[in-house]
Amino acid sequence: MTSTLFILQIILAILITISVLLQKSSSIGLGAYSGSNESLFGAKGPMGFLAKVTFVLGTALIVNTLILSYMYTKESNRSVADTIVPSTPATPASAPIAPSAPAAPANSIPQAN
Questions:
Q1: For 41, which of 14, 46, 101, 110 could close a Cys bridge (C-beta 3.0–4.6 Å)?
Q2: Could you tell me which of 51, 53, 50, 73 has the C-alpha nearest to residue 61?
Q3: pLDDT single digits (tens) 22-80
């Protein structure tokens, strides 16, 4: 489902780009249509039609973007840290034993005679 919506997103982006480029600007735009096309769309030319198409395509692009973001968030509500399997717990290293003071041998103590 998400791959279909992603393909639709790409198509909508291409169509809205074409729709915007076909519109006349103050510098006459791309000039992609001639005077004969203006009579096809009425006395005002294609401006009203292309503006409506651009609005509809823009709205569809926004709605598709919201749906895609919802679906990706729904699919990936797990974290990467959830997939990490902890290894066996390490046993703490025993602390080094401090050497004790050497005990004096019993026969080395001088005795009084």
A1: 46
A2: 53
A3: 887 655 545 555 544 445 555 555 567 888 889 999 999 999 999 998 888 877 776 67
Q: What are phi and psi of 108, to 5 degrees?
A: -90, -5
Number of folded domains that form the chain: 1
**Three-class secondary structure of residue 80 per DSSP:** helix
Structure tokens at 62: 């926004």
Evaluate whether 65 touches 6 at the Cβ level (below 8 Å): no
Q: Which segments of the chain does DSSP mark as H helices, in order?
A: 2-22, 35-41, 47-75
Q: Which residue has the tokens 């997103």?
A: 9
- Residue 32 belongs to some domain of the structure: yes
CA dist 45 and 60 (Å) reads: 24
Residue 86 domain flag? no
User: Does the model's pTM come out above 0.90?
Assistant: no
Q: In whole angstroms, what is the distance from residue 17 CA to residue 1 CA? A: 24
